[in-house]
Write a structure and sequence with these properties.
Elements: E1 3-7, H1 13-19, E2 24-26, H2 31-34, H3 40-60, E3 65-68, H4 72-75, E4 83-88, H5 93-106, H6 109-120, H7 123-132, E5 136-140, H8 147-150
Parallel strand pairs: 1-3, 1-4, 2-3, 4-5
């Protein structure tokens, strides 16, 4: 049965996918750039269609794991309690400082400001609502900064740390 993992940018979705292309799918929508210049109605239609694509892939049961964005406009159109939601611990300032350093090193400050900062607006309230709904919400921290550190994959999934790598520096986000 396919499992959906919604994760914040920079936590390892693309890296795990690159190692497991036959068993995982990294469902990228580049939503920030995709809806640029769209009317509200067109943007809503775009997000409806993104959610429909995720549902279709989920129902096909071809992949063991589908990685999706944490973008609320897509996630809220799905059944949130059937998804594992992974975030850096936004309730801890030190963890968020470390996360910011890693992301800026991986991409750059402009990318962080354009993509990450808007996501941080009222994120604590959003995560608390997910928890209240009974969703599976997990947090990364300084010692456990990636998805594979807080989620147990099936043994057949090759993980970056199993390959002796700590981080995939070759995959830059383009969103």
């Amino acid at each position: 049965m396919t499992h959906i993992i919604s994760a914040f940018p920079g936590l390892g979705k693309t890296t795990i996918f690159q190692l497991n292309k036959e068993r995982t799918f990294d469902r990228e929508f580049n939503e920030s750039r995709s809806v640029k210049g769209m009317s509200l109605l067109d943007a809503q239609t775009f997000f409806d269609q993104c959610a429909n694509i995720v549902k279709l892939q989920l129902n096909s049961n071809v992949y063991d794991y589908i990685f999706i964005t944490d973008h609320r406009s897509i996630v809220l159109r799905l059944y949130q309690t059937s998804i594992t939601h992974i975030y850096p611990n936004v309730f801890d300032e030190k963890i968020m400082e470390d996360y910011k350093k890693r992301i800026i090193q991986r991409n750059d400050l402009k990318w962080y400001e354009r993509v990450i900062e808007p996501r941080l607006v009222d994120i604590q309230d959003y995560i608390e609502k997910l928890i209240q709904m009974g969703c599976d919400v997990r947090f990364t921290d300084i010692e456990h900064p990636y998805i594979e550190d807080v989620f147990s994959f099936e043994d057949f999934i090759l993980l970056p740390k199993k390959k002796g790598r700590k981080e995939n520096v070759s995959s830059k986000y383009i969103e």
